[in-house]
Each structure stands twice: as structure tokens, then as C-alpha cells.
Amino acid sequence: MLQLAQRVGRAKPSAIMVIAEKAKQLKATGRDIISFSIGVPNFLPGEHVYAAAREALSHDSGQYGSNRGAEALLDAFLRHIEALGFSGYGRLNLSIGIGAKHVLYNLAEALLDEGDEICFAAPYWTTYRDIADIVGAKVNVLHCGSQQNYKLTPAQLDAALARKPKVFLFNNPSNPTGMVYTGAEIAVLAEVLVRHPDTWVITDDIYHSMVFDGIGYHNFVHARPELRERVIFVDSVSKTYGMPGWRVGLVAGPESVAKAVTTLNSNHITSLPEVITAAAMAAFSGPQDIPQAKCAEFAGKRDIVMAALNAIPGVICPRPQGAFYAFPDISVAFGKRHGDTRIDSDVDFCAALLETKGVACVPGSAFGEPRALRISYTCPTAQLAPGLERIQQFFAELT
What we know:
Largest sheet: 7 strands, mixed
Shape: globular
Number of helices: 14
Number of strands: 14
Distance between the termini: 52 Å
């Protein structure tokens, strides 16, 4: 009998997209659905991005581009990361991908042989686990519950790195929790990394421009510059500039890693299209007023979400300080009933919430934390308060 490759059996559909598709189907039947499920910023880039794209179309060469990325795009990204505090990088330290997800997959292919270990904290972005499974890596999940504000402790990291994993993957600000590590927290974790030189470090920092409360964005390289030889920084235009559909991801790191990603690109994608390259260049080099305004808007929405969640007895939600997510621990609902439905898990909770109240959230188990759920608060502002009120009503109706 003909069979597919074993790795396909390890690949799973995105749990986030499954919920989003279910909400879409219900909406198509006429249901009033408010979606807190998918993590898209729900704003568009400035006119200068579209102008650059139109200009590129008018001069389209129709040719293949560079596997590493167009030099002008790489230079724009270099200026972008220099503003973030990364100095001493050149074009050979960079490469591109079809979104940050593709960059992360390429990095897994470049760094992990089958059976190698990768470690990362939970809650984690669903794709981390999925990519690791596909490439056949062993996963060491470092559980960080709500009682420790969903943040990794130095002791946890030290114990994990003592196992000499090939890769440590770190996400700051965090999807799904919205938590942000302070400069002091990053510095202490960086000290641990210095003591364990046998592990590559990938920092998925695509929400770096969405940090609230003056806490600032910090990276291990800022704290200990010598870690530059092992730290691989991943970024994209998706969240910062409202361009998830444009699919542009970038990586900055050691030359050997950037070269490996570039080689994989030569076999996977060849290059980014010219029009996409022009749009990304304009996003990095042009006015930054829209990202700045949206960061302030998301901080305000965060406050609305937290006020609503804090008013629900028994719900625990560490205060997010970045991205556009909240990750409440809703385990107080377990063992209770909503109407005829018994709530025994986060999946039960989210299914009943969607069916009875028309609110779509993603179960926390998709992110490695089954006591919680993820709220993405990028919906139109007019939908935010009604959606939160429905969640409050759902809790009030539990018996």
C-alpha cells in the first residue's frame, strides 16, 4: 500500500485556525459571532507601503530575486534592528522567509537533526510544538503557570540547559499570554545562557514594537553582547505594520545560520516577489506613526479586557504588557455546568462559549496550558465590550 511520509503524520492543523474556521462557519449561518480567536492585528499599513508596492509593479522585472533577500530590503532591516539596539550586523547576518513562521521552520531544519532536543516555555505559540514534531526533534516543555505570571524562571532555564538541548526558543513579548520580560529579567536569564554555551538561542520577538507601560523591549544580546554568536533574532512585518498577509519574515544571527537559511530558501521559495520586497522596505523605512498609535490603542484595549476579567470571581489573569493577548486561567469553571453542558476542560469551555454566547476563544491546551484560554483583543473596538460581557454572562450562568 502506498503511504505518506511519517513526518506528515506528525503534522497537525493549526488549532487556532480550526477555531477561527468554526467561528466563520457559524457567522455564515447568520449567527452573531464575536471572534477573540485569531491573532491578526486588524489594521492596515500606511499609504506609503501601498505606494511603494504600486511603484514596484510599474517597474516589475519579472525576474527571480535573491535567496537572501534584496540588498535594499536587508539594508532597511539593518537600520530597523539598529534602532532596536542590535549593532555590528551586516547583510551576511541576515536572511528572509515567507513570514516568521517560515523562518522558524527553516531554522528548525538548519539547526535540529532528528532526535535533537529543543526547549521552550509553556504557554507557547502552537507552531513551536508543531514544527518540532515535524522535524523529529525531542521537546522539553518548561511549564510556567499563572502563579509565576507565565514567565520562565532562571532556575527552570538553568535546569533545562543542563540537559544540553540543541536549541532554546524564547518568545518575548509572548503569544499567547502577552507577558513581557523586563530588562532585569532578561539580564538574569542571559547570565544563565552564558553558563551553557552548547545551545543555540532563537528569540521570536515579532511583537517587540507592541510593549506597554514603559517597560521597553529587551533582548539577551542587549544584556550580554557575547551571546550574539549564538542568538538568532526573528522578526516580521506582520504584527508591527499590519501586514500579516504580505508574508515577510526576517532573521538576524550568526553568518553560518543566515547562510543556512538562505540555502534552504534556494530550495524552498527562491525569493520574495519584487512587489512584496518593496512594500516591506517601505514599512521599515517609512513613517512609524501607525505602529506607535496602534500600540497605544492596544494598551487601552488591554485595560478594558483586564477590567472585565478581574470582575469575574475565581478567574486569574496575569496582566499582559505587550502584544494583543490576554490568557486568563479559567479553571474555576471546571466541574461546573452551563445549562446541560458539563465543563471539564478548556476545550469544553470554549466550545460551550462559542455555541451559547457566540464568542470564539482558543483553548489554552493548544498552547500547552489546559487551564486557560487565549483572548485576542484585536477585534473592532465596538465588539470588545459586548464580547467581554458575554464571557461574564457565561461565567454567571455556571452552576
